[in-house]
Amino acid sequence: MKELLRRSITGLVYVILLLSTVFLSSDAFDFLFMVFGLACLYEFKRIVQIKTYYLFIAYLALWWYFIYLVKDDLPILVLLIITILVDVALLVYLFSGKKRLFSSVQQFVISVFYIGGGCIFLTMIPYNDNEFAKFLIMGIFILIWVNDSFAYLVGKTLGRTKLYPSVSPKKTVEGSLGGLIFALIAAYFLARYEPRIDTVQWLILALVIVIAGGLGDLLQSKFKRVAGVKDSGAILPGHGGMWDRLDSLIFAAPFAYLTLKLFSYVS
């Protein structure tokens, strides 16, 4: 009961902080996810045992360039392609079944584009023609929260078939399907409150976010399993580290951005 209370309080503070920055100003939202990105990078650096600190400089330089300076589509497209290629390579690693040791150069590239690129695209998603779409980005957060919550509840109640036991023993196929179904239901209702994209597009976006987010969660579990740790950190009592909280969003963000780009929403 004490652990549940601690998790609930931490989760409530996290949600209030997120909502406050989204509705306070776009600059507050940008700054929050820049800081979140630094926290995730620090935790990733510690778990993968990266020795250099230059990855923080590279991330901040990329973040500043793409959030405040870039006006053309080409640099964003290049970053998107590199980030997605790194993510796909990490999926190969996820399903390889091997405890691969990455070189220092590979560690640097993975940290900057998997963690850093994910945070940058998450920050860029709500912007379109200098307008900040508060309800769109909140809708994406809601889809992740609904999926995570109902995947846990359905898995706890009906889960029988293990999804990927060698990486995440507690996740089940039933739980994952339950999370997806409730996320699609949430997407249907979100379309009524955020009309920038239509109902079908919301459903497609939910599908992309749930699948990519689930893979991101498994990928983080593999990194932790290889490192022999339970949590990425202890900054969030009852929840572990910031990377534990954002693993799904970070991995899903570039795929969500690409999906919205295909919908001709983001600029």
Layout of secondary structure:
Elements: H1 2-24, H2 26-48, H3 54-69, H4 73-96, H5 104-124, E1 127-128, E2 131-132, H6 134-158, E3 162-164, E4 168-172, H7 173-193, H8 199-227, H9 242-262
Description:
By secondary structure, this protein is mainly alpha-helical. Helices cover 76% and strands 4% of the residues. The protein contains nine helices and four strands; from the N terminus they run αααααββαββααα. The strands form two sheets. It has a two-stranded antiparallel sheet. The chain has a two-stranded antiparallel ribbon with strand order 3-4. Strand 3 and strand 4 form a beta hairpin. Helix 2 (26-48) packs antiparallel against helix 5 and helix 6 runs antiparallel to helix 7 (173-193). The mean pLDDT is 88.
**What best-fitting shape do the alpha-carbon axes yield?**
globular
Q: What is the beta-strand fraction?
A: under 5%
The total of beta strands comes to 4
Low-confidence stretches: none
Supply the helix-strand structural class.
Answer: mainly alpha
Cα(first) to Cα(last) distance is: 47 Å
Strand order of the largest sheet: 1-2
Number of helices: 9
Please give the radius of gyration in angstroms: 18 Å
SSE sequence, one letter per element:
HHHHHEEHEEHHH
Q: Mind describing the biggest β-sheet?
A: 2 strands, antiparallel
Share in helix: over 70%
Mean pLDDT: 88
Brief description of this entry?
The chain is mainly alpha-helical and 267 residues long. The protein has nine helices and four strands. It has helices at residues 2-24, 26-48, 54-69, 73-96, 104-124, 134-158, 173-193, 199-227, 242-262; strands at 127-128, 131-132, 162-164, 168-172.
